[in-house]
Amino acid sequence: MSFAFTMYRRCVPKAAQILLISVTWFCSVGHTSITSDFPRLASYFGTKTRYEEINPFLLENPLLVNRKQDLLPNTCTPLQIVSVIRHGTRYPTHKQIKKMKKMHNLILQYGGGSDLVEDLRNWNMWYEDWMDGQLVQKGEQDMNNLALRLSSLFPSLFTAEKFKNCNMTFLTSSKHRCVDSTKAFISGLEQRFFGFPQGSIIGLDELICREPVVNDTLMRFFDHCEKFVVQVEDNDTAMHEVDKFKESPEMMKVLRRISALLNIPEDELNADLIQVAFFTCSFELAINNTENSPWCKLFDEEDGKVLEYLNDLKQYWKRGYGFAINSRSSCSLFQHIFQHLETAVAESKRSQKVSNPVVMQFGHAETLLPLLALMGLFKDEKPLTAENFSLQSERKFRSGRIVPYASNLVFVLYHCDLAETPEDEYQVQMLLNENLLPFPHSHQSVCVYDDLKKQYSHLLENCHVTEECKLLKVGHVSEDEL
Ligand SMILES: *[C@@H]1O[C@H](CO)[C@@H](O)[C@H](O)[C@H]1NC(C)=O
Ligand SMILES: *[C@@H]1O[C@H](CO)[C@@H](O)[C@H](O)[C@H]1NC(C)=O
Ligand SMILES: *[C@@H]1O[C@H](CO)[C@@H](O)[C@H](O)[C@H]1NC(C)=O
Ligand SMILES: *[C@@H]1O[C@H](CO)[C@@H](O)[C@H](O)[C@H]1NC(C)=O
Ligand SMILES: CC(=O)N[C@H]1CO[C@H](CO)[C@@H](O)[C@@H]1O
């Protein structure tokens, strides 16, 4: 009892004030009605979901900031923001484009009769190989607007002065779409600070710290983890739940329906081709903002749920809780984030200015999912399996809600005056996709920094990525020899 009370006091020292602020920070969000009910399917696109599905008010005003939540009150000052951001909307990859062509050719080859088939036959296959997963223009806007919203949510951190003095850090994965996302984010900040993107008009010195810094060790840790690569990524049997679901009764039902609609023999189709048709619908919506693409008319909501599960199963086994190494491989990034927080706390305690108040790191869904799993977020009681489609209909692990395009995990470190003890002065909040994300251990949306460190001490102290990722060669050394 007294333990529970202590936890409560330490993790929400200012509950009353927070409550007050949430009333006063009222704003127009939620009043606007989103009329189009089309993209019901659009919430089932998994990792190919638009960011606007999460925050639908952005469809009407992409710069609207959601303040209607319990951000900390005025007695707390933000000291630092450390973020991990997924790239914005992108083109299909080379592999996906190849499958798209195959599916479209099948329709051209067989097809008959219906208007829908005619529409699909006349559909312009405009995706080309060079596009290969690159950022699209909408993806640049995603990042531009995110920069404008985050900087208006934290105006004391995102200042022109800090920007000019190189006190903002921009790290990125080496992938084209991530580097371009970083650049678009930076240009959004320039727009905020100077009214326009500065591009070439500034001096070289200033330019250097406004360039994205590539660091794949941090942002693509999965490529550098041998154990992950061998046991999961390159392992043909690791995805057996995914493969099994592709042959499941649920999937077969979708396949039979599409086969009948398109007049294509069932044995010419498979789950991958059905999935690519569904993704084509997602790309037309995300890239062209086309709500009535013929590809979307192929699917009903039940199909959407099945195809969403197929996507989530893959993310679960390849990036999420499926195998421990998926998330363990991200502990260097996790520690890196905490090093930033630790440095900022130390500087603040010495009454110094925080040298690195804004840290922006750009990567992939594959960067974010393992990190969230490492922290224990979106964990379901039971694993996602090929058999558990209906049992998992209320699952937490729903990649479209967690890692749509432009998804972002933000740690905000605050200094709070009027704290009860000096340890309570430093507090942390997390935002996922600009919504407060409760800490999994307390279900509270704010935590004292020291408590958070204790909560994750096992990861901060006992997770060494080189050890975690070391592959024990079977037959050479046995466990107890080490
Ligand atoms: C990436 O960041 C890590 C952690 O800060 C650092 O040790 C490493 O040297 C960096 N790598 C590159 C290529 O900059
Ligand atoms: C591949 O995955 C299966 C299933 O998880 C596992 O039993 C097997 O040991 C893995 N193979 C390798 C080479 O790690
Ligand atoms: C989508 O937009 C691209 C250019 O941005 C255009 O070339 C293409 O024809 C459009 N596709 C459809 C189906 O409207
Ligand atoms: C801002 O960054 C510059 C360059 O890295 C550094 O010299 C300066 O100390 C930083 N500012 C503060 C207040 O720490
Ligand atoms: C691994 C897992 O959660 N399996 C469950 C799947 O669902 C069936 C019932 O539908 C359970 O019996 C399994 O335990």
Structure description:
- By secondary structure, the protein is α/β, with parallel strands linked by helices.
- It is 45% helix and 9% strand.
- The protein is globular, with a radius of gyration of 24 Å.
- The two termini are 43 Å apart.
- One 2-acetamido-2-deoxy-beta-D-glucopyranose is lined by residues 230-231, 235, 237-238.
- One 2-acetamido-2-deoxy-beta-D-glucopyranose is lined by residues 124, 126, 284, 288, 290.
- Keywords: Cell membrane, Disulfide bond, Glycoprotein, Hydrolase, Membrane, Signal.
- Its EC number is 3.1.3.62, 3.1.3.80.
- Belongs to the histidine acid phosphatase family. MINPP1 subfamily.
Instruction: Give the number of DSSP strands.
Output: 8
Helix/strand order: HHEHHHHEHHEHHHHHHHHHEHHEEEEHHH
Low-confidence stretches: 1-37, 476-482
On the 0 to 100 scale, the average pLDDT is 88
Regarding CATH, which class? Alpha Beta
Structural class: alpha/beta
Largest beta sheet, briefly? 8 strands, mixed
Q: What is the helix tally?
A: 22
CATH topology: Rossmann fold
| CATH H-level homologous superfamily name | Phosphoglycerate mutase-like
Bound molecules: 2-acetamido-2-deoxy-beta-D-glucopyranose
How far apart the termini lie comes to 43 Å
In CATH, the architecture is 3-Layer(aba) Sandwich
Tell me what portion of residues adopts beta-strand conformation: 5-15%
Shape call: globular
**How helical, in percent, are the residues?**
40-55%
Q: Taking Cα atoms only, what radius of gyration do you get, to the nearest Å? A: 24 Å
Query: How many structural domains?
Result: 1
